[in-house]
Amino acid sequence: MSSPTYSISDTQLYALQHRAAEAKANAYCPYSSFRVGAAFLAVNGDLIAGANVENASYPVGTCAERVALGKAVVDGYRRFEALAVATDVTPPASPCGMCRQLGRREGSLAERYGSIREFCGLEMPVFMFDKDGKYVVKTVGELLPMSFGPEDLKGGGGEGGGGGGGGRGEKKGLEVEQEGGQMEGEVAP
Fold this sequence. Notes:
Structural class: alpha+beta
Strand order of the largest sheet: 2-1-3-4-5
C-alpha cells in the first residue's frame, strides 16, 4: 500500500503520521465511533493537527482536516507542504468532499482573493494512513479534479467581482468538442 512521498522526507512523513495518529486518539465521535486525525505540514516545518468533533446534530460536526486547517489559520499559517489523515480502517479513508474543497489552492490567485481553498497547491501530497500505518498518497488535484475556486467567481480570474471583461457567462450559442472521451462545451456568440 506504500506510495511515493513526493518531496517529503522520511522524517517528515513519520512526524506527519505520528501527529495525525495522536490527534485521532483525541477525536470526539460518540455517534459514529469513526475516529479521524489530521496533520498539516507547514512550509516552515511545523505540524498542526486536528481531530473530528461530532455533534448530536450531525451536520454541525467538524472533520479533522477542517479542525486542523482552522487551527492553523488562527495561528497564522497560510502555506502547507503536505497533509496526513489517519483513520482506524483499511483501506485508509480519504478526506471528504467538503475538506477537499477547503484544502484546494490555485496559485497566486488565492493570495490575491483570499479564498478558503487557497491554502494548498494542487500538487501537494495528501497521505492517507490506515489502522496499520500503511498509506496511500494522492495530490490535492487528484482528489479534487475540476474543482471550483475563486477564479470561477472573479470573471475568469481577473481583478474585481464576477461579470464584465470576458468572464464566464458572456457568450451565447454552444460549441462542443470531445477530448479524451469527455465532452467539453463552450457557449459561443
